[in-house]
Amino acid sequence: MAQRSWDGTTYGSGGMHRWLIRLLRWLDVRILYVFSNIFVIPVCVVFRPGGRIIYRYFRQHHGMGRWKAAWKTYVNHCKFGQVVIDRFAMYAGKQFQVDIEGYAHFLRLSEKPEGFVQLSAHVGNYELAGYTLRAEDKRMNALVFFGEKASVMENRRRMFEGNNIRMIEVRSDMSHLFEIDRALSDGEILSMPADRFTGSEKSLTYSFLGADARFPLGPFSVATMRGLDVLAVNVMKTGTKRYTIYVCPLAYDKDAPRQVQIRQLASAYVEELERVVRRYPEQWYNYFDFWK
């Protein structure tokens, strides 16, 4: 089960990241897209295990034929490469056009004194939500991987500072749980992924894209412990320099027994995630056997 844990970091050294940011200050992202698509992505598709896994994802969970699945595997890696380039382009000061569907839900919860939970997944480019969805009077706390490269963390911290966002690093000693509790007690926003395991292996099993898959219990348990409102937020690439943020409230019966609440909330999340992934199948970026 270690393969399902959150153990990924952004590829490259700190020096490489700084060089890329300097380059993107004057270079159009489309030039790097072309370079990546021609010289980098084909090698990744052939030699990295993720290529075979994504090929099976298209074959088994989207019912595609061999040739179409092979082509979509290449497209998936190209899309992921573009998302990574876009992140560094944002660090370099580049702007992207962002449309928001369901923004009223975010604003409504931001105006309430209670905190709320925002659930994400490894699809699209969720980091962009931190630079777009923000509440002036309610701080957002984003759960991030402790082992990420220092250069990436420095740039995230710089970008987040002006958007009233604080990062909570997931640590092996579980000290991040105290920071989560403190943030929610103060009526703040908690943003966390709900499609990978970060510490505890406790899980819930649901049918997802035609087969049973395990989802971490933690995010749903945290939300229901306080009876908090929950939003599913997915940020999908919809053009060369354009993204769409989908904000969807997740309903559950707050008067039901706790275990029922957890099940209802998790079911609502899985249903929304499947809706988004079926609409944007090429932007699924879990490069391990999610259904294992």
Report the C-alpha radius of gyration, rounded: 19 Å
Q: Order of strands in the sheet with the most strands?
A: 1-9-8-2-5-3-4
Number of domains: 2
Specify the number of helices.
10
Any chance you could write out the topology, listing elements then pairs?
Layout: H1 14-24, H2 29-47, H3 49-61, H4 66-91, E1 97-101, H5 103-110, E2 116-120, H6 127-130, E3 140-145, H7 150-161, E4 165-170, H8 176-185, E5 189-193, E6 203-208, E7 211-216, H9 218-225, E8 229-239, E9 242-249, H10 258-279
Parallel strand pairs: 1-9, 2-5, 2-8, 3-4, 3-5
Antiparallel strand pairs: 6-7, 8-9
Question: What does the model show?
Answer:
This protein is 46% helix and 20% strand. The chain has 292 residues and is α/β, with parallel strands linked by helices. The protein has two domains: 11-91, no CATH class; 97-283, no CATH class. It has a seven-stranded mixed beta sheet with strand order 1-9-8-2-5-3-4, with helices on both faces. The protein has a two-stranded antiparallel ribbon with strand order 6-7.
Question: What would the keywords be for this entry?
Answer:
alpha/beta; 2 domains; seven-stranded mixed β-sheet; single chain; 292 residues; 9 strands
